[in-house]
Structures are given as C-alpha cells and as structure tokens.
C-alpha cells in the first residue's frame, strides 16, 4: 500500500538560521520576534491586531471566552470541521450545536442553519431560546475550509437577524478572501493555524486576528495564562 502523507513540511538553511537566531536571542517565549510576526500576519490579512498563541485551538478558545460565550449558551458550528471547532466552544461551558454544510463548498449552509434555528428555537424577549434545553442561542462559528471562505456576508446577515456573535475559524484558510476582502475582515475576529500541515508553520501555534482593540487587549491578558 502506498503511503501518501497528509503533509510534508519543507525547511532549508534559512529556517535553520532563523531558529538559531531566536535561540541566541534568549527569547523563547513571546518577545520581539513574536511581536514582529503578529504585525506581519495581521497586516497581510488586513487586520489591526494579531495575538499569537500556542495553537489555533487555543486561539479559538480564548477568542470565545473574550466574546463572552459560556454556560447556558448554544453556539452553531458546521458539522464538517476538525473537532477543535466544537471543543473550543465546549471549553467555555457553552454547547456546540452542529449544523449542515453545503456539499459544494463544505462550508456552513446558511439557509439550512436558518431553518434549523426556526425549528429548534423560540424567540423570547429578543433572544432565541432552545425549545428543549432552554439554552440561549449566542453565536455561530463559520469555518473557512481548505483555503475557501464560507459565505461570510450571509453568515453576518443571519447573525444580525438572530443577535449572534460571529467568530471565524480560519485554521485552514490563511490568506483566503472573497473578492479583495480577506478572512477575518468582515467585522468578525478570526483564528488561524500554523500547524505543520498548514500553508505556513511555526512548528505549532495559532493567532487571533481582529481590529477590535478591546477584544485584542482581553485576549492578550488571557494568553499569559493559557
């Protein structure tokens, strides 16, 4: 049986020199090189701020805490994604609720999601409440998959109608865009991954991208304890 690896990282002398320079600097946790990297990634994606963390899962988790997700909340996630998307929701105490994806794109099916909301939730005093659990519908996590953005304008429109917070899971979509607008630049924070099987790697790591200064400051405080 032929072994076809899911990824094969490529490194040459340039990467070896940069790693050696980082070790020689004495900065092996945060430091000026990390700050430089945060600014470079944020600028490339069109965001004001980048906050580097240990993994994209950590980025999703901290971002969701900063957005206020917690016990008693339902958060919609696409049924086709890496389990970290749902896990990050559950880490906050909220409940991950899977919804269908469009088989043409493997990203969230917004029309299906709205029908699901109408069938499973009831509006009470401006909030949408799960008819069975009593949880409040609080957010939606579109996953930008395989370098392809979900229909974020449609997601945002859905979120506006139902009062939901949006956080884009862009683990597999660094650089993805709709027209000239990059992921994470539709008014929502996003999380990207630097795992070895992604388009660029730091060995591990992830980053939250946002133009919201309050969210950025909150996540930076959380990062020091993650």
Overview of this structure, please?
The chain is of the alpha/beta class and 226 residues long. The protein has one domain (35-223): 3-Layer(aba) Sandwich (Aspartate Aminotransferase, domain 2), CATH 3.40.640. The chain is 35% helix and 20% strand. The chain contains 7 helices and 12 strands. The protein has helices at residues 13-25, 32-45, 56-67, 84-91, 110-120, 152-162, 213-223; strands at 49-53, 73-78, 95-99, 121-124, 127-130, 136-140, 165-166, 168-169, 177-178, 181-182, 190-193, 206-210. Strands 1-12-11-8 form a 4-stranded mixed beta sheet, with helices on both faces. Strands 3-2-6-7 form a 4-stranded parallel beta sheet, with helices on both faces. A hairpin with a 2-residue loop joins strand 9 and strand 10 (181-182). The longest helix is centred in the N-terminal third of the chain and has 14 residues, at 32-45. The protein is globular and about 60 Å long.
């Amino acid at each position: 049986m032929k072994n076809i690896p899911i990824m094969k990282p490529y490194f040459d002398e340039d990467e070896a020199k940069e790693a050696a320079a980082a070790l020689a600097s004495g900065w092996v946790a945060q430091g000026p090189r990390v700050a430089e990297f945060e600014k470079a990634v944020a600028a490339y994606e069109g965001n004001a701020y980048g906050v580097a963390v240990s993994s994209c899962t950590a980025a999703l988790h901290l971002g969701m805490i900063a957005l206020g997700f917690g016990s008693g909340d339902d958060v919609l996630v696409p049924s086709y994604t890496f389990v970290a998307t749902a896990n990050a929701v559950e880490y906050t105490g909220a409940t991950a609720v899977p919804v269908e994806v469009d088989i043409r794109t493997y990203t969230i099916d917004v029309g299906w999601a709205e029908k699901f909301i109408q069938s499973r939730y009831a509006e009470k005093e401006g909030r949408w409440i799960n008819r069975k659990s009593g949880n409040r519908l609080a957010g939606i996590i579109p996953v930008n998959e395989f370098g392809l953005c979900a229909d974020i304008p449609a997601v945002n429109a859905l979120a506006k109608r139902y009062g939901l917070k949006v956080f884009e899971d862009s683990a597999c979509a660094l650089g993805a865009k709709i027209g000239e607008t990059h992921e994470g630049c539709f008014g929502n924070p996003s999380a990207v991954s630097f795992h070895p099987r992604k388009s660029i790697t730091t060995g591990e790591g992830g980053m939250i991208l946002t133009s919201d200064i309050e969210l950025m400051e909150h996540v930076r405080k959380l990062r020091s304890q993650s």
